[in-house]
Design brief:
Elements lengths: L2 H18 L3 H25 L1 H6 L14 H19 L8 H20 L15 H4 L3 H4 L5 H31 L5 H15 L21 H34 L15 H13 L5 H25 L5
């Protein structure tokens, strides 16, 4: 065997081993890059979802509401695409299993978010079981009220609520124009829900609960001031926004709700359903494959049940 062939053979045997042996410093630098990017993405999520941040105890944006404008939605999709490219570029060879999983889950979440964008879910943001009219009152139960600033931040949010309602209505109007409508019979319930809150007295509104009792650390003077400002914000901003929203849904939106409840009745209904299956099951199985899998499992379980029944002496 010539020296050249011997050298070539050694390269074939050894080079892959050498190439696969990542230098420790390289692995650590890539691990740091992943962790730094995860931290950056989390910071972005908190900053652009201030309500969610507050529910987790991060009060840095405690005086702000989420931005539901089209500009904010488009900006978020662009940022998601940028984050996806950056996460996919990180090589996780040699990483601990958990960190490999962290990257895989983040990449999947970002891809699913971008894939869902084709269906414009933001244009159908309200139904009888979700939407701003139901989510907003829940702020009271998820926020902490420990200081004067907590109350002042909350009052600031109450005053901003009409803007978020208006942004929501804008998206709902776009959905009306594109046939992205919930079932009509469900939207009729939304009218009752919104009116139920909008027609209450300010002091009896669920938004007023934080002003019923204050922490002892807050002075009597501050309590009086905060209660007056809070009830005024509810009376002048929140309740009118609910009444206006209920009128829009009742007069314009609900009458155009779809008559068929199935998701197949929406534009690209089959593709929407397939996406929901993919998102929920984390598989690439089609809806029909999932259905057949379910039928097979039910048949297997029934067979086991009948076997046990026979063993116990029951006739089947």
């Amino acid at each position: 065997m010539s020296k050249f062939l011997t050298f070539a053979l050694l390269c074939v045997l050894i080079c892959p081993i050498v190439a696969s042996a990542q230098p420790p410093a390289d692995v650590e630098s890539r691990r740091k890059a992943l962790n730094d990017l995860l931290a950056e993405q989390w910071e972005y999520t908190m900053r652009t979802n201030p309500i969610y941040a507050s529910t987790l105890g991060d009060k840095r944006w405690n005086d702000k509401l989420d931005d539901f404008s089209q500009q904010a939605i488009d900006d978020d999709l662009r940022e998601s695409q940028n984050f996806l490219v950056r996460f996919e570029a990180i090589d996780t060879a040699g990483f601990p299993e958990q960190e490999v999983l962290n990257k895989k889950l983040m990449v999947r979440d970002l891809k699913m978010k971008l894939e869902e964008a084709r269906f414009k879910p933001w244009e159908m943001p309200v139904a009888q079981n979700h939407g701003i009219h139901l989510d907003a009152p829940q702020l009271v139960s998820v926020l902490s009220f420990e200081s004067v600033k907590d109350y002042e931040d909350y009052i600031s949010r109450l005053r901003q609520l009409p803007v978020l309602f208006d942004q929501t209505v804008i998206q709902m109007r776009k959905g009306m124009a594109e046939g992205l409508m919930p079932p009509r019979f469900l939207l009729e319930k939304v009218v009752d829900q919104a009116n139920g809150i909008g027609t209450q007295e300010a002091s009896k509104s669920p938004f007023a609960h934080p002003f019923d009792e204050f922490p002892k650390a807050i002075s009597d003077a501050d309590q009086k001031r905060l209660r007056e400002q809070g009830l005024a914000a509810i009376r002048d901003s929140v309740l009118p926004a609910y009444v206006k929203f209920a009128k829009f849904v009742g007069d314009e939106y609900a009458p155009k709700g779809r008559t068929e409840p199935g998701i197949w009745a929406l534009p690209d209904g089959d593709a929407r359903y397939a996406f929901r299956v993919k998102d929920s099951t984390t598989t690439n199985l089609t809806p029909e494959e999932i259905h057949q899998l379910g039928l097979a499992q039910v048949k297997e379980i029934e067979g086991r049940m009948l076997g046990v029944a026979n063993q116990l002496g029951y006739r089947t």
